[in-house]
Amino acid sequence: MTTQVLEQTRALTADWRDFVALTKPRVMTLVVFTGLCGLLAAPSAIHPVLAFTAILCIALGAGAAAALNQWYEADIDALMRRTSKRPLPAGRMDRQTALHFGVGLGAFSVLLMGVATNWLAAAVLAVSILFYVLVYTVWLKRRTPQNIVIGGAAGAFPPVIGWAAATGDVTLLPLLLFTLIFMWTPPHFWALSLFVRSDYANAGVPMLPVVSGPRVTRQQIALYTLPMAAAAVAPWPLGLAGAVYGVAAAALSLAFIVLALQVLANRATEPSEMKPEKRLFAFSVIYLFAIFGALVLDRWLLA
């Protein structure tokens, strides 16, 4: 009884900022941007109001998945320094509130997407939410160091959703964009997990650096960078994008490969000595923004 009263009292301290924090707005920025680029790169025009609604639904769906992720992982978030101040582990919100918020937001986003655009886009959005929550969060994350490899598919759906919202179908280009993000996700997150390895170890999360060590992780980063670069450049020789995109993708991918090789050459075990890993992690975010921005610019120049 005392525990329930304490939980209810803590829940009263939650405000709108805590609900925003549940949606992981920093992560959502990249999700929304890639979804927007998928929509803008599509060959079919879509009314601006419907386009805005589609992107809003992608944002709401991503926020719902993030909220449900934090609902399920409140226990391990409390054990990691970088997540301990989130609303649930900090005691500002109870888990039931987070669950209801996530489920409600997710259902609303899918229904609104279906009504405003088409049900294919809504179905892909629903799959992306369920994949992130059930496959990555519930099934993979606590069980296997391959969690981020398979689970990376969840973050690769937005450009496919944006494209489907505009066209009502899914063709080769959005599938290549999906593949690009899918291959990008392991190097991006493994670079981060190398210098926050102690956090994952303390929480018992079997991320690759914890299970296999830094050397194997660095090898895997370099390995995954190659098919990522191939997927990034592929739309150009396949005739799905022009030279503006192709040159930008090739240059950005070459820079990514160079940084990945610097990570591979590093032998440091202390986070303070992992400057190559931190550079790669920071650049990986810029890389994806730049690649997708170049695609939209290329499409507009060719129009």
Topology:
Blueprint: H1 2-11, H2 16-22, H3 25-41, H4 48-72, H5 74-77, H6 95-116, H7 119-140, H8 147-151, H9 158-167, H10 172-195, H11 197-203, H12 208-212, H13 214-233, H14 243-265, H15 275-302
Description:
This protein folds into 2 domains: 11-169, Tetracycline Repressor, domain 2, CATH 1.10.357.140; 171-303. It is flat. It is built from 15 helices and no strands. Helices cover 76% and strands 0% of the residues. It has 303 residues and is an all-alpha fold. It catalyses: heme b + (2E,6E)-farnesyl diphosphate + H2O = Fe(II)-heme o + diphosphate.
Poorly predicted sequence stretches spanning 5 or more consecutive residues: 1-11
Number of helices: 15
What is the CATH-assigned architecture of the largest domain?
Orthogonal Bundle
Cα radius of gyration in angstroms: 20 Å
Give, in order, the helices and strands: HHHHHHHHHHHHHHH
Number of strands: 0
The CATH H-level homologous superfamily of the largest domain: UbiA prenyltransferase
What is the CATH top level name of the largest domain?
Mainly Alpha
Mean pLDDT reading: 93
Overall outline: flat
Largest sheet: none
Percent in helix: over 70%
Derived from helix and strand composition plus strand pairing, the structural class reads: mainly alpha
Number of domains: 2
Function: Converts heme B (protoheme IX) to heme O by substitution of the vinyl group on carbon 2 of heme B porphyrin ring with a hydroxyethyl farnesyl side group.
Transmembrane segments: 27-46, 52-72, 93-113, 119-140, 147-166, 172-192, 221-238, 244-268, 280-302
Catalytic activity: heme b + (2E,6E)-farnesyl diphosphate + H2O = Fe(II)-heme o + diphosphate
Membrane topology: Multi-pass membrane protein
